[in-house]
Amino acid sequence: MIVPDIEIVAILVILLLGLPILWNGYKNGLAKSFSFTKLIQTINKSLKIQGVIGLLLIVLAWTWNWLDFKFDTLLVGTTYTFLVIGFFMYLPVLVLLNYIKYLIKRKLKNPKIED
């Protein structure tokens, strides 16, 4: 699918993916005391909000397409780009970061003492 008005769509997708992370980071005090595990927890909490945003975008795109609105291509392009980036870029990286966090916690929990 070729997305029309890619500049506007890119800005909207960045905002829709980034604002929940910034909001949860501010609520968790991530700027005051930064740690890797706290960052991953913030991103995990943001994933719930981003999932709701994705579902709302799907419902809005279907509704606008069904009612034949004039500007539905912008919403459909934003929804398509949001879902593609979310499923194929955001989720795999988040899984990898959670795995790294798990390995770090496991390593800190069971340090080997070598002579």
Total beta strands: 0
Task: State the major sheet.
Answer: none
Low-pLDDT residue intervals, each spanning 5 or more residues: none
Mean of residue pLDDT values: 90
Q: Which range does the strand content fall in? A: under 5%
Give the overall shape.
Answer: elongated
Q: What is the succession of H and E elements?
A: HHH
**Number of H/I helices:** 3
The first-to-last residue Cα distance is 60 Å
Q: Determine the fraction of residues in helical runs and give it as a percent range.
A: over 70%
Radius of gyration: 19 Å
The secondary structure category is mainly alpha
List the helices and strands and how they pair.
Blueprint: H1 6-27, H2 36-66, H3 72-109
Helix pairs in contact: 1-2, 1-3, 2-3
Summarize the structure.
The protein is mostly helical. The chain is built from three helices and no strands.
